[in-house]
């Protein structure tokens, strides 16, 4: 499993891209997608919602369970991925690209986001 | 005693296949190898290979073995022919279901009872106690067998390439001793997927060899290893009850809509008879909640324990729910008040974390294979 170097990661297994023009993209990692199993339903935050770092902002439902989706940063949601709502399996098949979940205008980010290497260590052995 | 999970004879093989393992009734079992949806679809359209070694086998032998079973279980085991199998229940004195079982008659005086993993000890203890005073022996054979199932439309072809046994003559719910890939096996045409298929009981030391032979024989026809996750969605689509969900000690077979497994006409007394006669009468005069199917109109998945609601009132409870790969929609089994149990009843919803999602009431099963 490889975690893209250019992304940063939360301990709750979300990834965050660098902000372009203040807007960053959020998804869940391949590790998290594998742990969930086939995702069948995604409830994503909607455009205009305010999300808070470390707090629940949606849910991902797989065959066996429901998992809360946390936001790795605080800010305002400017786009959510309709492709994932229509085809939740994208989270499994393409977690770092087509399976992105939402875009957020970053107001504040916590200081504890991990690098790809640090995240790989966190998930090693699991 | 150690709390470490028990491992099947195929444990190392599952790990080498990259299985995601899960604790199930004290066993470390494969949940899935890749995508559970792909495994599910493979079983429906081609074939899947399951390790079911966690199931509990109990052997009864002796001149009065059949009498023990007629007394201990609610079914009429005397009428099961040699080489045939029967689905039945073992009940408490109060009629509550202790477990659902498959009983194979291996000989006139030899039977194998297969219990659910989570109930294997309970069933063993009950059978041992109920056999007291009969000329019969109850033997714990949980360690004597590994159990491998090959299920799906390609399974007869796959198995036929590995055995001389007369598979054409082997009916559904029948079992015969034979040899598969050179390994002695009890070959049973049973399963829990809604598909044609076989369950192979073998000595644990032969399990890896048999699994590998089946894998090779199925290579060209799409056989894949399949885990417990898809086993659950397969049985749910087929409307098959699961102990702990649709069946519990607080329900009698009549409450579960399975009153037909209780055979009052058999000779002699059996454990639970009086309570079950009362339950049958209650069910006839005042219908209990009925087990129905629910199909989601939306995409949110009902889970066991969620309330079924009509007009804001709770009228039932979901016992099992999952996204159905075959229907492409979430489905559930639920016990619902008789007034709302008819297929097509409108206005039925499930409370999913606070919102009432609409569901259609349908007759079970959701899926029936074309024969």
Automatic annotation (TrEMBL), chain A:
Q: Which domain of life is it from?
A: Bacteria
Alphabetized UniProt keyword annotations: Lipoyl
Q: Which residues carry this modification: N6-lipoyllysine?
A: 64
How does the cofactor attach, per the note? Binds 1 lipoyl cofactor covalently.
Which residues belong to any copy of the Lipoyl-binding domain?
23-105
Q: Does the keyword Cell membrane apply?
A: no
**Biological process per Gene Ontology, one example term:** glycine decarboxylation via glycine cleavage system
The record ties this protein, via InterPro entries, to: 2-oxoA_DH_lipoyl-BS, Biotin_lipoyl, GCV_H, GCV_H/Fam206, GCV_H_sub, Single_hybrid_motif
GO terms under cellular component: cytosol; glycine cleavage complex
Q: Does the keyword Glycoprotein apply?
A: no
Q: Which Pfam families match?
A: GCV_H
Signal peptide annotation: none
Q: Which cofactor does it need?
A: (R)-lipoate
Biological function? The glycine cleavage system catalyzes the degradation of glycine. The H protein shuttles the methylamine group of glycine from the P protein to the T protein.
Give the family this protein belongs to, as stated in its UniProt record.
Belongs to the GcvH family.
Q: How does it assemble?
A: The glycine cleavage system is composed of four proteins: P, T, L and H.
Q: What is this protein called?
A: Glycine cleavage system H protein
Underlying gene? gcvH
TrEMBL record, chain B:
The record's Gene Ontology biological-process terms are: glycine decarboxylation via glycine cleavage system
Q: Name one GO cellular component term.
A: cytosol
**Pfam families registered for this protein in UniProt:** GCV_T, GCV_T_C
Gene3D superfamilies to which the protein is assigned, alphabetical: Aminomethyltransferase beta-barrel domains, Aminomethyltransferase fragment, Probable tRNA modification gtpase trme, domain 1
> Catalytic activity, per the record?
N(6)-[(R)-S(8)-aminomethyldihydrolipoyl]-L-lysyl-[protein] + (6S)-5,6,7,8-tetrahydrofolate = N(6)-[(R)-dihydrolipoyl]-L-lysyl-[protein] + (6R)-5,10-methylene-5,6,7,8-tetrahydrofolate + NH4(+)
Write out the residues that bind substrate.
199
Q: Name one GO molecular function term.
A: aminomethyltransferase activity
Q: Which UniProt keywords apply?
A: Aminotransferase, Transferase
Q: Which residues form the Aminomethyltransferase C-terminal domain?
A: 289-368
Among SUPFAM superfamilies, the record links this protein to:
Aminomethyltransferase beta-barrel domain, Folate-binding domain
User: What EC numbers are recorded for this enzyme?
Assistant: 2.1.2.10
The residue ranges of the GCVT N-terminal domain are 12-266
Q: Which family does it belong to?
A: Belongs to the GcvT family.
Q: What task does this protein carry out? A: The glycine cleavage system catalyzes the degradation of glycine.
Write down the PANTHER family for this protein, in alphabetical order: AMINOMETHYLTRANSFERASE (PTHR43757), AMINOMETHYLTRANSFERASE, MITOCHONDRIAL (PTHR43757:SF2)
Q: How does it assemble?
A: The glycine cleavage system is composed of four proteins: P, T, L and H.
HAMAP family the record matches:
GcvT
Protein name (Swiss-Prot/TrEMBL): Aminomethyltransferase
Gene expressing this chain = gcvT
């Amino acid at each position: 499993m490889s975690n893209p170097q250019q992304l940063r990661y939360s301990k709750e297994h979300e990834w965050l891209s660098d902000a372009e023009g203040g807007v960053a993209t959020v998804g869940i990692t391949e590790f998290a997608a594998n742990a969930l199993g086939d995702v069948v339903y995604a409830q994503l935050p909607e455009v205009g919602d305010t999300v808070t770092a470390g707090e629940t902002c949606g849910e991902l439902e797989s065959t066996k369970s429901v998992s809360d989706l946390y936001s790795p940063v605080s800010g305002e949601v400017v786009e959510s991925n309709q492709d994932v709502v229509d085809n939740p399996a994208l989270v499994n098949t393409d977690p770092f690209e087509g399976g992105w979940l939402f875009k957020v205008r970053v107001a504040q980010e916590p200081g504890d986001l991990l690098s790809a290497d640090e995240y790989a260590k966190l998930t090693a052995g699991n | 005693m150690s709390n470490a999970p028990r491992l099947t004879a195929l444990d190392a093989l599952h790990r080498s296949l990259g299985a995601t393992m899960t604790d199930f009734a004290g066993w470390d079992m494969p949940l899935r190898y890749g995508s559970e949806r792909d495994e599910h679809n493979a079983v429906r359209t081609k074939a899947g290979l399951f390790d079911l070694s966690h199931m509990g086998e109990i052997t009864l032998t002796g001149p009065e073995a059949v009498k023990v079973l007629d007394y201990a279980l609610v079914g009429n085991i005397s009428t099961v022919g040699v080489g045939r199998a029967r689905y039945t229940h073992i009940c408490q004195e109060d009629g509550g279901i202790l477990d659902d079982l498959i009983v194979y008659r291996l000989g006139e005086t030899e039977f194998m009872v297969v219990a659910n993993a989570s109930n294997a000890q309970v069933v063993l203890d009950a059978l041992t106690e109920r056999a007291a005073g009969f000329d019969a022996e109850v033997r714990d054979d949980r360690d004597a067998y590994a159990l491998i199932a090959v299920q799906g439309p390609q399974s007869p072809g796959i198995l036929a390439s590995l055995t001389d046994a007369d598979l054409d003559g082997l009916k559904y719910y029948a079992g015969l001793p034979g040899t598969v890939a050179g390994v002695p096996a009890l070959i049973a045409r049973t399963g829990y997927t809604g598909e044609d298929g076989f369950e192979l009981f073998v000595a644990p030391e032969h399990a890896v060899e048999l699994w590998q032979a089946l894998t090779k024989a199925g290579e060209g026809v799409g056989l894949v290893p399949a885990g417990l996750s898809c086993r659950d969605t397969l049985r749910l689509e087929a409307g098959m009850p699961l102990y702990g969900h649709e069946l519990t000690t607080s329900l009698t077979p009549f409450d579960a809509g399975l009153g037909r497994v209780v055979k009052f006409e058999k000779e002699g007394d059996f454990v639970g008879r009086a309570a079950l006669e009362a339950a049958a009468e209650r069910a006839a005069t005042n219908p209990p909640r009925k087990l129905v199917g629910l199909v989601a109109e939306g995409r949110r998945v009902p889970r066991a324990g969620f309330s079924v609601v009509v007009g804001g009132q709770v009228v039932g409870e979901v016992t099992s729910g999952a996204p159905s790969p075959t229907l492409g929609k979430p489905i559930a089994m639920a016990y619902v008040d008789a007034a709302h149990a008819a297929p097509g009843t409108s206005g039925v919803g499930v409370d999913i974390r606070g919102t009432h999602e609409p569901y259609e009431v349908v007759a079970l099963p959701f899926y029936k294979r074309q024969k």
